[in-house]
Amino acid sequence: MTDSLDSLQKDSILTLSSGVRMKYDEVRECNMLLMPECVVKLNNSASEVLDLVDGKRSVAQIYAELASLYEDETLHKDLAEFLTDALVRGWIEIVQS
Amino acid sequence: MRLSKVKTEIKPKIEYPYTLTLELTHRCPLHCLYCSNPLELVNKENELPPEIWLSVIEQAAKLGIVECNLSGGEPLSYKGLDSVIEKARSKDIFTNLITSGVGLTDRRVAQLVSCGLESIQMSLQSANVETAQIIAGTDLHAAKLQALETAKRSNLPVTLNVVLSRHNLDQVGEIIELAKTFGIRRLELANAQYYGFALSNINDLMPTVEQMKRALAVYEQKKSQLGRTMQISWVIADYLEASPKACMGGWARQHIIITPEGTALPCHAAQSIKTLSFPNIGEHSLDFIWKESPAFNFFRGNEWMQEPCRSCDKRELDYGGCRCQAFLITGDASQADPVCSLSPHHHMVQSSLNVSIPTQERLYRGRVNT
Questions:
Q1: For B240-281, how does the pLDDT look when each residue is reduced to its tens digit (9 = 90+)?
Q2: What span, in angstroms and rounded, lies between the C-alpha atoms of A38 and A51?
Q3: Residue among B62, B119, B155 minimizing CB distance to A36
Q4: What is the pTM assigned to this prediction?
Q5: What span, in angstroms and rounded, lies between the C-alpha atoms of A35 and A38?
Q6: How far is B319 from chain A (nearest CA, A)?
Q7: Which of A87, B119, B280, B316 could make a disulfide contact with A36, Cβ separation 3.0–4.6 Å?
Q8: Do B65 and B17 form a contact (C-beta atoms < 8 A)?
């Protein structure tokens, strides 16, 4: 897991990992991340970020979009932490160019 | 938005179940020493027809189920598998096939994918044919390696599951290497647990503490080498831990398992608790079973607990451990899981660890022993 921080560059394009999908769950009224042998219930912030993880946007673009919507001085750090964590857990992966 | 609050909850304690496991059939080409199916297997004549499963899936979706495991026995030998997968996908439920791999061909995978299959979990017994035969009681190792190739070609995410015991713990390094050659992204190394059939073979399966430690060291070294290229998990052996695990994430909190004849269970081994009777989906709705049935409600909350659990500050973390293990060892399913060092029955677990001589008798699953 040591390479995760280094591998997450500004221009890294992110996508949901193969076999991972997000769905809106009408019973729980929230987004959920479904993947082999694991279910993750997402809060609003997490699903908002993961909505932008679409195989087209880079880390910098995801940040810019969120920054245009929310004024939050810790946004950059929090986003990096969340994406790194999601990468380590295998929810998302970097698109290899 | 406070992104600092971006935290995701993994399977929290809520009133909706997440995962439905359908044991479509108990028929299986393997005869594993640690088979997780109930002690009494369901015959083919008593298996439910597909239309009942389709109704179960309809009900499950309304109840909040988001993942469905198609399991067995060997689910590939169940005739209605395709329609069950199709139905689950039509309800936007994530579908996962839990298979031995025997019977998995390119053509069959393609059919299942067209029905909506999203992932495969395949079992492997060993890195070599000899040990695989000792564990599975049959010579299907080569067929399973072929199935792994097939699964790889399908481009579905494949989880490889290997149950660890005395027989294969020394091969952990080879098993990880083998998984690598098949491009496996998720590998589960699950130490055998002794709830059901495995208890019959406990003396044959139980490793020594030293053997376990050696294997764990190999695992940790390999895991750090592999980084993100493979997710490897190590499921601990209850008997070697000082505190119990939150079995199934708590009794009837997340999962529903249904046997081939329609008996609904909160965990695979629940039928080993002889003092409970479990509801059948032929007689009750899934909604009733989950919310109202006495068996599913029996160990919810903590009112049922005895000491040392009742006053323990970990009772909301481990829920007193495994109910089946408590019953099998103490005869009372509401006792603390005896793997807990605080349990008055803990010495009974300890004494099985001292058995270091492999038994000559092995009980193979689903066939007359020779």
A1: 777 888 888 899 999 999 999 999 999 989 999 999 999 999
A2: 19
A3: B119
A4: 0.91
A5: 5
A6: 21
A7: B119
A8: yes
